[in-house]
């Protein structure tokens, strides 16, 4: 795409991945050369700069349509890379592994059944039972802190797995992270109601 002299990238140098759109904040590219982790502040700063340059209002005629397409791609790339779960799924897709948003360890056709799978499912069930049994916001806040630690640990594992080229391990860890993200949503949606009971709204 050519957006005049202010194009974020030229048609002759098409980005191979979302990472190529952010040469400053993601200069090392995706794993294994770069880290799975990203700096949200740096990424947002470069995103805003790119969007300012590609904004359709700054272009006319045929360039305006090209600018709209570039702006949409930049926006999609930013949202994907910013979100750890979406980032992990995207990195897997670059390696030919497509994952559905609702894929689970038990439901994945390529996942071998094992004690770790059963252990994870049991842990998730216990956490959800704890959420349903919670009687105070203080309990929920403690669970949120514990769940944030789980997500951080999962992201650290993904960094190691992607860097080492263990794609099956990364796929399984992405499933694990998805469970903890869902638990986080359940915690965010928790609210106390009437006579001491609690409800969880999806």
Which descriptors apply to this entry?
4% strand, 202 residues, single chain, mainly alpha, 57% helix
What would you say this structure looks like, in words?
The chain has 202 residues and is mostly helical. The protein has six helices and two strands; from the N terminus they run H-H-H-H-H-H-E-E. The longest helix is centred in the last third of the chain and has 28 residues, at 137-164. Helix 1 (40-54) runs antiparallel to helix 2, helix 3 (84-94) packs antiparallel against helix 6 and helix 5 packs antiparallel against helix 6 (167-188). Helix content is 57%, strand content 4%. The chain is globular.
Short structural summary:
This protein is mainly α. Helices cover 57% and strands 4% of the residues.
List the helices and strands and how they pair.
Layout: H1 40-54, H2 62-82, H3 84-94, H4 115-133, H5 137-164, H6 167-188, E1 190-193, E2 197-200
Helix pairs in contact: 1-2, 2-3, 3-6, 4-6, 5-6
What characteristic shape results from the CA principal axes?
A: globular
Indicate the proportion of strand residues: under 5%
H/E element order: HHHHHHEE
Percent helix, as a range, is: 55-70%
What is the topology, as strand order, of the major beta sheet?
Answer: 1-2
Largest sheet: 2 strands, antiparallel
The unreliable regions are 1-13, 106-115, 193-198
From the alpha-carbon coordinates, what is the Rg to the nearest angstrom?
Answer: 20 Å
């Amino acid at each position: 795409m050519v957006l005049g002299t202010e194009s974020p990238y030229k048609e002759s140098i098409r980005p191979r991945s979302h990472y190529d759109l952010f040469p400053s904040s993601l200069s090392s590219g995706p794993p294994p050369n770069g880290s799975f982790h990203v700096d949200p502040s740096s990424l947002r700063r470069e995103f805003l700069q790119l969007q300012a340059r590609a904004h359709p209002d700054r272009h006319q005629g045929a360039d305006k349509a090209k600018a709209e397409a570039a702006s949409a791609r930049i926006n999609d790339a930013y949202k994907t890379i910013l979100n750890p779960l979406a980032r992990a799924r995207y990195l897997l897709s670059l390696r030919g592994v497509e994952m559905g948003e609702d894929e689970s360890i038990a439901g994945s056709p390529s996942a071998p059944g094992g004690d770790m799978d059963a252990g994870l499912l049991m842990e998730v069930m216990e956490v959800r039972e704890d959420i349903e049994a919670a009687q105070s916001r203080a309990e929920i806040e403690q669970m949120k802190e514990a769940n944030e630690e789980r997500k951080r640990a999962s992201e650290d594992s993904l960094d190691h797995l992607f860097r080492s080229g263990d794609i099956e391990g990364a796929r399984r860890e992405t499933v694990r992270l998805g469970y903890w993200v869902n638990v986080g949503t359940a915690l965010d949606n928790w609210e106390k109601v009437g006579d001491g009971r609690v409800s969880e709204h999806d």
